[in-house]
Design goal:
Elements: E1 8-13, E2 18-23, H1 31-39, E3 46-50, H2 56-64, E4 69-74, H3 77-89, E5 96-100, E6 120-125, H4 139-164, E7 165-175, H5 180-187, E8 191-200, E9 209-216, E10 223-224, E11 228-229, H6 239-245
Parallel strand pairs: 3-4, 3-6, 4-5, 6-7, 8-10, 8-11
Antiparallel strand pairs: 1-2, 7-9, 8-9
């Protein structure tokens, strides 16, 4: 079902390098999409953003890498329309296209023509998590089934990324730390050279997100990278976070 249209806002991110129209209520663009775009290697030229929403991750990547192109995939037609408006708003018409489609259909005979199978060298994705289990009678059962739904969906999106990517293509995703085992299990079937970067809200707090980068067809062991801390103990943004979130810097 399409998202109900509410009042819209027009917001600048990345220190004004990117402007996004988005709904005032509900999910709004946050750090996740911008960190994901910053974690993507700058030598990629053909990107696919799975579950793009209003286009934030894919367009943030284009803002940082001026000779790249992107296909933004979104199942919700309302959000896809907003993504298309953001493509035009930022002058990316020649570099980006929006496809309204279910991620599960990509690279399949009955799926959309774009993105083509094996045509991308980069896939960005912030897979949905926190599966809805409100109608389960037992809280424990609800949590267990929600976890299984999240893990199944994650695996489905990784398989879609595999179909979109050519040889040695790179998959970048962001997820919760609790999903680490599921992430590694999903990647094990087609990806290697996995790099994991924890994201901490403050230096004294556990990680709240994992940025994960993997290469299609590789078999080398995973590597845990030094973490990114978003704010100091007193709440001030760290220079590292400012470089990424305000100045469109890259995460190595």
């Amino acid at each position: 079902m399409p998202t109900e249209v509410t009042a819209l806002s027009t917001d600048s991110v990345l220190g004004g390098k990117l402007t996004l129209r988005q709904m005032m209520s509900g999910h709004r663009v946050g750090h996740d999409a911008l960190l994901l775009a910053a974690f993507a290697p700058a030598d990629r030229r053909m990107a696919v953003d799975l579950g793009t929403g209003v286009g934030s991750a894919g367009l943030a990547f284009l803002a940082r890498v001026p000779d790249a192109r992107a296909t933004l995939v979104e199942i919700d037609p309302t959000l896809a329309a907003l993504a298309a408006s953001n493509v035009a708003l930022n002058g990316f018409d020649a570099r980006a296209q929006v496809v309204t489609a279910d991620v599960a259909t990509l690279g399949r005979p009955a799926g959309p023509d774009m993105p083509g199978k094996g045509a991308a060298d980069l896939v960005l994705t912030n897979p949905p998590f926190n599966a809805d289990a409100r109608h389960r009678t037992s809280p424990d059962e609800a949590r267990a089934r929600a976890h299984m739904a999240d893990a199944d969906l994650l695996a489905q999106w990784v398989r879609a990324a595999d179909r979109c990517l050519g040889a040695k293509g790179v998959l970048c995703l962001i997820h919760r730390p609790e999903a680490l085992a599921d992430i590694l299990a999903a990647l094990a079937k087609g990806f290697g050279a996995v790099e994991i970067l924890p994201v901490h809200p403050r230096p004294d707090r556990p990680a709240v997100r994992l940025l994960v980068r993997a290469v299609k067809g590789r078999r080398t062991s995973p590597v845990l990278l030094p973490g990114l801390v978003l704010a100091s103990v007193d709440g001030a943004p760290t220079p590292e976070a400012e470089a990424v979130l305000r100045h469109s810097g890259a995460l190595r």
